[in-house]
Amino acid sequence: MLMSLRNRIGAMVLVASVSCGVCVAQAFQHPGVLVSGPQLDFVKAQVKAKAEPFYSEYRKAAASEYGSLNYQLKGPPSSGVIECGSYSRPDNGCHAEDDDASAAYLQSVLWYISGDHRYADNAMRIVNAYSHRLSAYTNSNAPLQAAWSGEMWPRSAEILRYSNAGWKPEDVAAFTKMLQVVILPLVQNGSGSNGNWELSMIEAMMNIAVFTDDHALLKRAEDMWLERIPAYFYNSALDGPHPRPMPRKNKNESWYGTTDLNSSVDGISQETCRDLGHTGFAIAATMNAAETAHIQGGTLFETEEKRLVPALEFHARLYLHKDPVPSLVCGGRLKPGKGYTFAIGYNEYHNRLGVPMPETKSWLDHLQQESEPVDTHMMVFEPLTHGADAGKQ
């Protein structure tokens, strides 16, 4: 495939950076976690004009539990400690935090679009409750819960901080401390567990880096993403008949019986034969992190296009149940699960870069029938925020 325009521009920028000797790092773009200022302005204009599908998605979001002006805060526990065990046993504040973080983000988006300050007040109330009270995560799933939290909280915080919402400096400071002291230590070294863990950790690191203007942390997150993606998504032309070895591998991490592969399964992931749910989490974190990097001037999407476009198309076809599962794929048997964050990947590769993605489009059309497109770990009304790209209008 010919190098895309953005790839060529990125290459020229790289050459210029190398030739300049010691250069000043590019300033961070704010808001710049998952959604940018220009993208939010674009969505706001579309909703104001009652353009579809944005207007319908906006009304759907405002009518949802997470967009309700009467949303009731669910956590954190009075102890300040969120305890999360395997398979949510125990669950002391884990799902409550997932819901609260999703509500804070969606209410922040609704505030930006509508200008109704009640949404901003709700979002700040939720964020501040955790910023001032959350002190630790514990039990076996503590690193994963911290990763999910690092994925979600900075999204709302970026919008609140850079939209004249009135978020007080002392509350911003408390939130920053929560990110750096409570969440970051649990995610910054990655994970030897299944790839969805580390990909969520990478996104969390990236989000924290943007909120705290930490260039070194952003670079570390991008480097880990570039290391993990080739070991998570298979491409026959790049890998040969066997998947790449996994970084930080432990004895419990595997390809679930997948060994010999070929071009017919390009895009299959390390966890596809585990189940499609965890695979969906990993795809979500992958696309989210790449989107935030894109906002900050990065080219992760372009760098791994040969893996990620087939990954989206391959899994969209599995989610749609179009054909019998080939015997080469998990022995022809798959455990079900939902698909996540395909809107962000489709917006990048199809809407921005012009790559044909018919299977992903079919999956997105199918998802339009869902009344509330939310998985509280990471997916919150993406057809509203990423249904089209501001730069292509």
Q: Strand order, biggest sheet? A: 4-3-5
Shape: globular
The main β sheet shows up as: 3 strands, mixed
Q: What is the H/E string?
A: HEEHHEEHHEHHHHHHHHHHEEH
Strand content: under 5%
Termini separation? 25 Å
Gyration radius from CA atoms, angstroms = 20 Å
**Average residue pLDDT:** 91
As a percent range, the share of helical residues equals 55-70%
How many alpha or pi helices? 16
- Helix/strand-derived category reads mainly alpha
Number of strands: 7
Spans with pLDDT under 50 lasting ≥5 residues? 1-23
Task: Explain how this protein is built.
With 393 residues, the chain is mainly α. It has 16 helices and seven strands. The longest helix has 21 residues, at 94-114. The chain starts with a helix and ends in an 8-residue tail after the last helix.
Explain the layout of strands and helices:
Layout: H1 5-19, E1 32-33, E2 35-36, H2 37-48, H3 54-62, E3 81-84, E4 91-92, H4 94-114, H5 117-133, E5 136-138, H6 142-161, H7 169-187, H8 195-211, H9 215-232, H10 236-239, H11 276-295, H12 300-303, H13 305-320, H14 342-352, H15 358-367, E6 374-375, E7 379-380, H16 382-385
Parallel strand pairs: 3-5
Antiparallel strand pairs: 1-2, 3-4, 6-7
Question: What's the gist of this structure?
Answer:
The protein has 393 residues and is mainly α. The protein contains 16 helices and 7 strands.
Attribute tags:
393 residues; 16 helices; disordered N terminus; mainly alpha; globular; 4% strand; three-stranded mixed β-sheet
